Amino acid sequence: MVDPLLVWIAYFAPLVACLLITFLFLHSKSLSSLTAILGIVTSFVCTLLIASQIFSSHQTYSFQQSITWIHIDALTINFGFLVNPLAIIMMLVVTGGGSAIFLYSKGYMAEDPSMPRFFAFLSLFAFSMIGIVLSNNLIQLFIFWELVGLSSHLLIGFWYEKPSASAAAVKAFMVNRLADFGFLCGILLLWSLSGVSGAARSFQITDLATAVSHMDPHLLTIAALLLFCGVVGKSAQVPLHVWLADAMEGPTPVSALIHAATMVAAGVYLLARTFFIFEPLTEALSVIAYVGGITALMAATLAVVENDIKRILAYSTLSQLGLMVMALGLGGPMPGMYHLTTHAFFKALLFLGAGSVIYGLHHEQNIWKMKGVWKSMPITGWTFLFGTLALCGIFPFSGFWSKDEILALAFEHNTVLYWIATIASALTSFYMGRLFFTAFWGKPETGHGHHAVHESPTVMTLPLVFLAVLSVVGGFIGIPHFLYPHSEPVHLNMTVALISSAAGVLGLVISYLIYGSRPASDPLTAKLGGLYPVLKNKYYFDAIYGWYVDTLQQNFANLLAWFEKVFIIRIGVHGLTDTAQEGGRVFRFLQNGLVQFYAIIFVLGTVFLFLLLVKNL
Amino acid sequence: MITPNLSLILLAPLAGLGLVLMTPSDKTSLIRKIANLTLLVPFLLSAWVFVSYDAALGGYQFIQKIPWVVPFGISYHLGVDGINSLMLLLLGLASFAAVMVSASIKERVKEYYILLLITVIGTYGAFLSLDIFFFYFFHEIAAIPVFLMIAIWGSERREYAAMKLTLYLVAGAAVALIGLIALYLHTGVGSFDLVVIQQRLALHPIPFAVQNWIFPLIVVGFGVTLTLWPFHTWAPVGYTEAPTAISMLHAGVLKKMGAYAIIRFAIQLMPEAAHAWMPIIATLAIVNILFCGLVALTQRDIKYVLAYSSCSHMGYILLGLACFNGIGINGVVFLMFAHGIMAALAFAVTGFVTDQTKTRNLDELGGLAKIMPFVATCFIMAAFASAGVPGFGNFVAEILVLLASWDQYRGLSVLAVLGIVITAIYMLKAIRLGFHGPLNPKLASKITDAHSFETKLPFVLLLTVLIVIGCWPAGILNHIGSSTKPIAERIR
After folding, report:
1. What is the mean pLDDT of chain A?
2. What are the chain A neighbours of B369 within 8 Å (beta carbons)?
3. pLDDT tens for each residue of A100-119
4. Smallest CA–CA separation between A235 and chain B, in Å?
5. Are B463 and B378 within 8 A, CB to CB?
6. Chain B, nearest residue to A564 by Cα
7. Which chain A residues are within 8 Å of B468, Cβ to Cβ?
8. How far apart are CA B379 and CA B365, in angstroms?
9. Are strands B61-69 and A75-83 parallel, antiparallel or unpaired?
10. Which residue in chain B is spatially nearest to A73 when comparing CA positions?
């Protein structure tokens, strides 16, 4: 039995931390960081207790509690939580990963004067993310979905004085907003469909699960695809992937927590949590699967030509999210969530490692300006290596197990997607090898100011070690069993395992052959030929969107402004007032102030009246 | 228990007005203090009324009625229900904030406060009156000082703006007056008393053919006040040129009188005509949302952005009014309140900024967050509230309106959701150009943040209310619901 109080504490602890920092500790670095860390750790501890309570109950567990938030006539909107193993796994990722990253931030942001603001935002984000995970109805979920978008915007734009950070923050918010346009329409449509069987309309996830079977499949498909729009935005799938790479403008702990482990995974989580909606809809599922597959492959190709360590990892995140979404589209919420969990471990690790390098090299992010980092930062080097191997799906690291389940699923259901995913995996190994060998390999530069490079402080390396351990053993701690206690244990498909291992090793070997000798510049630039500019320009997505926003939309708005100025104001309003004035002018001659004129009028009038009189006689 | 006396809400500021009139005009700081206090009292009284109103009981409460011109059925009749008690609270908050930010006025201080007090007293009177004649009378009392205040304390194009705003509103009010007089004549009880008229019409509705021509007169007439497209063009120039307090009051409260009158006199009294006409208004509402939203995208003047935004958001009020269900009217009243607070906040903050920067052009601003973090935070929060981010009241209101309209106007509702995206575009643009980035070197060097308690108070007050109702909507929804229920039953 789960104690509801524990859930509420886990839910609100980060919000309390955020409020305390905002109102009390906005000028104290140590108190603000301590409060924020305490907040997230409290959530984490509560989640662990809930997890142990669920785990000991040995059954498919689902528990919810709500209070009424809005009640008008037949409309009821609740505020509550729905706890089940899926939610708890996600909670563990959010609060556990969050705890490590909050701690790391204390070191990473130590020199920033705005550190209290950072921790307030970060706590707000943690609260919003927990809200997405626990919400038991779609309106509440949407509220936190938006708040996650807001806190992500605030954190990307944390260094708002930098125009690039400000632009990236705005871009992230807008792309997510656009996606949420579809998402909200989907929620509204689903709500109106939920009343078809004669039951009261509801936003509750559990009510929807029972109502789905009565809904019209065509309308339900539309609703499902609209919900998926929200996923495309949050989880940065093609064609709304453009914000994620730019989001790397935010501080690195933000990239690790929000733009690798949690927020971007929210879309995948949403698909898994509401999978009952998608399950019977084959058309919708295949759309989802292909969007995921295309994202996985496309993002992997973009990572190959990127030189910024964080942006490489961002494209890698896109690619892995694509795999997860593809898994859901192929009917596998379990493999998708499994990969989400292990990915959270090793991708957060890689980002924090990258952050450690950036910190050590005084904010250098270009991998071609790094060399032999391994020597001066051994802990960072080793943990980064483990993260890389996990991401490349090398046996027996955690990524191997979870990725293998997705590939096995694709192998059974869709050959095209299977090969897309396998090629994406090979590319992943290649670009990660490129990153690793370029930045960590070789002899460190001397006399270049690099003698100052040394390992990061313990508050930063401790989270690295913690996440590295999880990345190594993540495949053995029974995550799938916890997620779906009654599903059959998945057997390793040997063909798939061998092919994927071969692809992973092949990518690493090729990258070693090219980059192992640590060339001074990228030899790939010349080899790719005509393809290079296409990749460097990210398939021109940004250019097309930029053209739409700056040219098409702006000119349309200008046209409307012109219409208002000319037709409504000049012709309509001024036309009316001018008519009134002209009317006045016409009759003005009657009052010209000349006594003689008045006299003539008077005489004429009298004559006229006299004539009338004569006529009537 | 002592029950609030509604006449005090009018008499207290009138007494304050008398004191200001008697104070010599060179004692500006004394005048300021009296004026601030004069509007604090009715604000606290309004809050008391709001808290004391018994939502479970419903109906009009704290009624005061004195027959006035008996042959025409005109009476001094005050009373509140859940709707106007909320409007009183809105006015109390916004007018107190507006008088507080008026500390920046340095010229003709006495005249300024006299006119400001008259406007606020008129608005209080309009929201308190349950007599249509007195509503109209107070509504005009509120309108006249606005003309003078824009013309005297406005910025560059103040004369054009004052003329345009006033002519528009007077013309709209005249059209509405024809409708109101026709309504008076056709009810056949010879009374301007809203309660009497309501009782009469519940039993003997006006014939549909008559309703059908009275209804559009009232809706379009008061629709002008509510910036119904295409009668909205007075608002951008008017709000931009007006002094800060008037922008706050007009965009925040005075234009809501239009929506209030439409609910009270048109939809509630002539439900059959509402069914015939409101679908057309719903279409115009979407034009409001999208057209004004897109035009806001082209503006470089920060006050123009806010003003077009305000026009755009009135579309949600109009759309909600066109839904014949309880959720819609609840959403509308909620939005009238939430938008009023948000608009007052946004104009107050902008006024604070532009008083110092001496420019409203977004291209000449930039990087203000660094030197005025407190004010920047307030602006950013107001902008996000406006963009419908959850946690602020506007989100609750907009989601209610969308839920209400979803069945009846599916296509229009989708477009209304799109409007929220457009709001986010121009609001984020304003944030990015005005507050993000490096400090614009052209800006004056002595820009400071809000430091003193008096300057921070109005911002904090408005922001707190906006967040409280956003997180705990039931706090005002119970009041709203108790009084919209009978209306919803009439129009269903």
Report:
1. 90
2. 160
3. 999 999 999 999 999 999 99
4. 19
5. yes
6. B233
7. none
8. 14
9. unpaired
10. B326
